[in-house]
Amino acid sequence: MALLPSLFSPRRAVERREPRLSLPATRTKADSFASGSYPSWLSAGLGALPSATGLPVTPFTAMQAAAVFSCVNRISEDLAKIPLQVQEILPNGRGALVTTTHPLAQLLASPNRWMTAYQFWFYVTVCLCMRGNSYVAIVRGQNGQPRSLIPIMPDRVSVLMSPRGWIFYHISHPLVGEGIRLHQDDMIHLRGFTLDGYMGISPIMACPEAIGLAIAAQRHGATLFRNGTQIQGVLKTSKSLSKETAARIASSWRNAYGGVDNTGKTAVLEEGMEYERIGMTADEAQFLEVREKEDIDICGMFGVPPHKIGRGDKVTISNFENASQEYIDNALIPKARQAEEQIHSRLVFSEEKARLRVRFNFDELLRGDMQSRVTAGVAAVNSGLISANEWRAREGMNPYPRGDEYRVPLNTGAASTAPAVDDPARITAPDPAAQT
Q1: Region annotation Disordered: residue ranges (predicted)?
Q2: CB-based contacts of 121: which residues, under 8 Å, 6+ apart?
Q3: Residues 261 and 357 in one domain
Q4: 305 and 330 share a domain?
């Protein structure tokens, strides 16, 4: 019987059954659980830590930093648009075929009632980037067949580890249950950087100062333009001013010279008054350099090259391809690999693990680059890796007659047909004309 009762009527009969693990009916003192929640000063779930700037840094306030929002949005969009395929491995390991009729493929194409596959992986990736953990509850039927995938907000999950080594998840969700405990086999848990192996740490919690400084720099820039001047100072006079007169002068100064629209106006002071600057200009404070430096640091936190969010000028035509590959290797593939392994472990039945695999098809990233796709396709067809109709099918084009034939380069041959080194046929008689 499944650990989680069926919440929806079955769509079709499934004959395969998998034995399920159940929670112990009674718990002794030895069976007590160790919570995976961190103390308040090390809140991995929320990442809520104060910064030296005085600004609170949480996943919500961190999104005010343009670099944080851009990095998280870029990674989530790019990973969500990559198709997740279920492949059946051919006998003797001679390749694999993509299947769309397997129940797992249908589940991944429509994870739940309200999310498409793109929306599902976008949200899962956002949680992983912002919170360091991403949780997906597996709703199973009575026979253990997975029927829907429900992403759970990290705030609603507590990770528990038993002394016997099992991990349990205490969750609350309207479609799963309030205050129920799921076994690790019924939860897809993607982890970021971790210190204990079963609970990820939010990058926002790990680097609050960098994000806090980025937010402070943005607010400083907004205030700078709101005031309309780069200098800050005082109006002073040798005369004694009443409280009402001082307030009137300050208000008159703000109305006349404050704001972006009043930038550059010539100041006219009242009789006997002097202006003395006591602040720093934006250049003196290196405002622009600070903003760029913090944006680059945030890009490093998420493994995103600065050019992906419009920062930096070190990417040229000659190294653009290498920079893009670096982004795929550092920011996308680690998350995709972890998701593939979790799905294969939690959603594939034991008797199918040897013949099924789940893979993100990164060729989708070339979808907008027609020239690269055609160049790669021509090389693959001419070398006999794929047929012309296989390439046309990938591009959504109709097949043509005899397009299923594989081409073989005529200037190459199989290694087995090459003569041996001591083969007499390889020894040719000397050319008499050459000797004369």
Answers
A1: 408-436
A2: 76, 79, 80, 84, 339
A3: no
A4: yes
Q: Tokens for 233, please give them.
A: 């100072």
pTM of the predicted model as reported, rounded to 2 decimal places: 0.69
Give the Cα-Cα-Cα angle 99, 140, 31 (nearest 5 degrees). 130
How far apart, in whole angstroms, are the C-alpha atoms of residue 138 and residue 121?
A: 15
Strands of 198-304, DSSP E: 233-237, 273-277
Helices (H), 258-369: 287-302, 320-327, 333-347
* Alpha-carbon dihedral sign for residues 227, 233, 237, 243: positive
Query: CA-to-CA distance for 176 and 416, rounded, in angstroms?
Result: 60
Contact 55, 215 (CB under 8 A): yes
The residue whose two tokens read 């008797």 is 351
**How many whole angstroms separate alpha carbon 421 and alpha carbon 102?**
51
CA distance to 192, 421, 424, 425, 426, per residue, from 431 (Å): 71, 21, 17, 16, 15
Residue 153 pLDDT: 92
Chain position carrying tokens 């395969």: 16
Query: Using an 8 Å Cβ cutoff, are 146 and 140 in contact?
Result: yes
Kindly report, residue by residue over 182-226, the tens digit of the pLDDT: 999 999 999 999 888 888 988 888 888 888 778 777 776 666 666
Q: Same structural domain for residues 198 and 315?
A: yes
Edge-to-edge strand list for the sheet holding 133-140? 146-152, 133-140, 187-191
Contact 47, 131 (CB under 8 A): yes
* Tokens matching residue 167: 């991990």
Tell whether 256 and 353 lie within a shared domain: no
